[in-house]
Amino acid sequence: MPTPLGERVALGSFLFVLLFGPVAFGAVEPWSLAVLEAGCVIAIAIIAWTRGAKGEYWRDVPGLLPLLLLLGVMAFQLIPLPQAVLSVLSPKSYQVYSETLGVISEDFWAPVTLDRRSTLFELMRYSSYAGFYVAGIQLMSRKGFMKFAVQFVVLAAAAVAFISLIHRFSASGMIMWVREAPLGSTFFGPYVNKNHYAAYMGMVFPLAAGLFFAYRPDVQGSGLVTSLRAAVGYERIHKYFIYGFASLLIAASVFVSLSRGGVIALCVSMVLMAALLSRVNLGRSFAMGTLFLLIALFVGWFGWDPILERFGDVVGDEGTIEFSRIYIWNDSINIIRDFTLTGAGFGSFGSVYPSYRSLPGGLVVDHAHNDYLELLVEGGLVSLSLAAWFVSAVVYRSVRTVLVRREQYSITMGIAGISAMAAMLVSATVHFNTHIGANALYFFFVSAFAASASHTRLRKGFKKRTLLKKRSFMYASQLGYAVALLCFLIVVVNLAALAGKPVSVREGGYSRAKVLDPLNAGYKIASAREAIASGGTGIDEYMKAVSLLPADARMLQAAAVALDRSGDRAGADSLMQASLRYGANNYDRYFGYSSWLLSAGWFEQAEEVTKQGISQSPGRTIEYIRMLESHGLSGPEVLASLPAMAGPHVLLAGYFLELGDELLAEDTYWMALDLMREGMREGGAMRAIEYIALFKYFFSKQRLDAALAIAVDAVETYPDSPGFRLRLGAVYESAEKYEQARREYEKALEISPGNRHATSRLKRLSGQGR
Q: Is the dihedral of CA 568, 574, 579, 584 positive or negative?
């Protein structure tokens, strides 16, 4: 029976997004994600419309109920709730809104989510995936399309892998020769992040291997020559070799990408696939072993050493695990304790994380690098339970059916689909692939494929073409129209949000942009600034922005300044304090609050905030010093604003020297020395540049005892620095302790062979007979 026109269009849209997602750099940008979602909703909308209009049945969809409930949780997170209800469902969300939005209005309603816009877009994204999953089940209940779809996906991935391998060894600094790579990115193939590329290929590899096994020649014969002749005469032998080579390309690209998580996920999927095939006695052990061997040889051609070194990087020289993700995971667990039941809102991780951050450095953290932890952070135990229910339902139905099937293709490809799901689930433990548009889409594809392949019948003569039950609805047409309308709204919202950015850059464009994208807090802030420029306070727009992002410390400080301008200084101070709580490790927040306190004349509070800010970022001390002086503070008052840390005192002393105040500089250097000695007892340390400045001052003044203490502490802190060894040797030499000086110069030479300073000083000592 010919396929209706509507379903052919749905088929085209279904295949288009499977190809578009990976090649559009993983579909992580607004434009590519909008195209991806549009393709998904077009597929399900056409199916819903045509079947609804005709009152046709739907095929049963494994895991549909928990998937719909999960979407319901996302929608519920967006609903403004009375304070009494919110305080019960999410006490922490209630606290955040009370400390921010409650400053202006005590009688407020607020949602569970702390980032309304991101939660809305996550709802649309997952609604699109859910529609894609349902469409996949309906379409792949036809055996012809099911086989074509998986072959299309595998061959497309093999082509991407082939091009990616060529690109890897072309020494190009651009992504696929066409796009500049973001600074600090670890791109591979079309993906900005090699881990996300590996996860995509890890899901496709079991499908490629499944086709390789499914098209294996069924040779029966007693002799080798007879078997070879039969294999050569096998009518589908070309497919066997094509999918075998595709499997090699895909697997090799994962290994060459040097993604540890991707390699582990691929290996787990291979082992699981081998175990399940062995369980159903399909006689694929030899083929599986051959494929494993070929992959090992093929990867060996590119070289195993970089791969082994990559895994060795996890463990440091002292046997400790060097993994920055551990900081993020520990912080995520702390967030989960506060947002246990309903989460902080889907898409809100980047907004809520700063107030829990313990990760040192300035690295921006938008994701937990563990999809399970991030799901708990954003959706709570409720969402994790529903997600587990969905996955369990798909896997259980697929495995249960595979174990009773007799058609080898259905068994093999059903197992391949389950193994592909496992690859993604393993990768999710160390990456955030569900937040990568293409990879999340592929997880729903392999889920739909696992269910379809295990249930779809291939042989003719059966009345039922699939074991999935038919489902009919009393209001099928109304349901179809409703789904089509929902899909249309998703497309419209995405287009409006995309249009907002170019509109905003025009003169007076923010007023129109916030209509197109009303949940964009940035447009509210820009509109508030326009109001201030026109003589207003902008407070209404600022508080609208705060209601959208109540945990955004930068936005809270901007709103605080506007509130102060309107005459509510106490409310402004409350928002400033909240900005420190929700941006606790952010230098700019302390700096902004301190500057505001000084402007308000609250010098004692400013002194305490300044101390906290410098303690967080000692390297920014000079900026604080200049800010304090710009507000009229004297040298001693600036000195009193420093925390009890040696480094900031060294920087301030140098600043005093530049101003010509040598007396105050000397006092500050001595204070720094005392703090350094105290830090030595407490295990503290300074930066190298601060040691150098402190040493230089005391050594130039011939205060050798002080210089010696500084040099010894510096050597203990930086034992591999030849410069500090030379400085320590210089102190010993000035004190006429020539043997100790010689030892330090020799150690400097060991650390830095050929060091001309160490060599010349040793020659000088030898020439003087010392």
A: positive
**Which pLDDT value is given to residue 201?**
96
List of E strands, 196-337: none
Residue 263 confidence (pLDDT) above 70:
yes
Say whether pLDDT at 313 is over 80. no
d(CA 654, CA 661): 10
Radius of gyration, CA atoms only, the chain: 32
Lowest mean pLDDT among 131-140, 322-331, 462-471: 462-471
Q: Tokens standing for 560?
A: 């605080």
Q: What share of the chain is helix, strand, coil (3-state, %, to 5)?
A: 70, 0, 25
Count Cα neighbours of 707 within 13 Å in the Cβ-side half-sphere. Answer: 22
The reported pLDDT for the residue numbered 748 is 87
Residue ranges in 303-370 assigned as alpha helix (H): 305-312, 325-338, 349-352
**Structure tokens given for 202:** 């890890």
Residue 300 CA: distances (Å) to CA of 190, 224, 259, 598? 24, 29, 16, 64
Cα-flanking dihedrals φ and ψ of residue 183, to 5°? -60, 130
Q: What is the 3-state secondary structure (H, E, C) of 514-565?
A: HHHCCCCHHHHHHHHHHHHHCCCCCHHHHHHHHHHCCCCHHHHHHHHHHHHH
Buried b (16+ CB within 10 A) or exposed e, 331-350: bbeebbebbeebbbbbbbbe
List 179's β-bridge partners, or say none. 175
547-561: string of b/e by CB count within 10 Å (b at 16+)?
A: bbbbbbbbbbbbbbb
380 dihedral zone (left: phi>0; alpha: psi -120 to 50; beta): left
Residue 475 predicted with pLDDT over 60: no
Q: Return contacts of 636-643, CB within 8 angstroms, 24+ apart.
A: 636/664, 639/664, 639/668, 639/671, 640/607, 641/606, 641/607, 641/610, 641/611, 641/614, 642/610, 642/611, 642/614, 643/611, 643/612, 643/614, 643/615
Predicted local confidence at residue 476, as pLDDT: 53
**Mind listing the pLDDT tens digit for each residue in 168-217?**
887 667 888 888 887 777 889 899 999 999 999 999 999 999 999 888 77
Residue ranges covered by each domain of the chain:
5-78+113-300+335-352+365-483
Which has the closest alpha carbon to 37: 499, 515, 438?
A: 438
Q: Strands 174-175 and 470-471: what pairing?
A: unpaired
Q: What are phi and psi of 2, to 5 degrees?
A: -65, 150
Among 519, 516, 514, which Cα is nearest to 531's? 514
CA 627, 628, 634, 637 dihedral sign is negative
Closest alpha carbon to 452 in 140, 64, 60: 140
Query: Buried b / exposed e across 707-743, counting CB within 10 Å, b at 16+?
Result: bbbbbebbbebbeebbbbbbbbbbbbbeeeeeeebbe
Closest CA to 528 of 519, 547, 541: 541
Over range 474-493, report the average pLDDT: 68
Location of structure tokens 């392949």: 453
Beta bridge partners of 59: 470
Residues in the chain: 770
| Residue 597 backbone dihedrals phi, psi, to 5 degrees | -60, -40
Q: How far apart are the first and last CA of the chain?
A: 102
Q: Residues 102, 108: contact at Cβ < 8 Å?
A: yes
**pLDDT surpasses 90 at 3:** no
Q: For residue 714, give the amino acid letter.
A: A
Q: Are strands 174-175 and 179-180 parallel, antiparallel or unpaired?
A: antiparallel
> Identity (one letter) of the amino acid at 692?
I
